[in-house]
């Protein structure tokens, strides 16, 4: 019965839309943009690191075998 009450109350609250009159200042917006760019760069560097280091080790092994 608790789940049914929860869904009835949730439906009731989500059925009434209201406009929020909130001000997002430039400091908060700039911080959000910087964090978003940082997360994207972290993901790019993560992919590069996962791809680059195994190739680097394989190349070093190949180079050492060639010199011997």
Q: Whole-number average pLDDT? A: 87
Which stretches are low in confidence, meaning pLDDT under 50 for 5 or more residues running? none
Which quaternary structure do these chains form? single chain
Which of globular, elongated, flat, extended, rod-shaped describes the shape?
Answer: elongated
Helix share, percent: over 70%
Helix and strand pattern: HH
Number of helices: 2
The radius of gyration over CA amounts to 26 Å
| Percent strand | under 5%
Structural class: mainly alpha
Measured distance between first and last alpha carbons: 76 Å
Q: How many β-strands, per DSSP?
A: 0
Largest sheet: none
Architecture overview:
- The chain has 68 residues and is mainly alpha-helical.
- It has a domain at 22-68.
- It is built from two helices and no strands.
- The protein has helices spanning 2-14, 26-67.
- The longest helix is centred in the last third of the chain and has 42 residues, at 26-67.
- The N and C termini lie far apart (76 Å).
- 0% of the residues are buried.
- The mean pLDDT is 87.
Distinctive features:
68 residues, 2 helices, mainly alpha, single chain
Gist of the model:
By secondary structure, the chain is mostly helical.
Please write out the topology:
Elements: H1 2-14, H2 26-67
């Amino acid at each position: 019965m608790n789940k049914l009450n929860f869904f009835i109350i949730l439906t009731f609250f989500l059925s009434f839309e209201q406009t929020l009159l909130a001000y997002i200042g430039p400091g908060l917006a700039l911080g959000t943009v910087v964090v978003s760019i940082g997360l994207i760069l972290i993901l790019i560097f993560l992919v590069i690191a996962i791809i680059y280091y195994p190739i680097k080790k394989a190349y070093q092994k190949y180079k050492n075998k060639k010199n011997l």
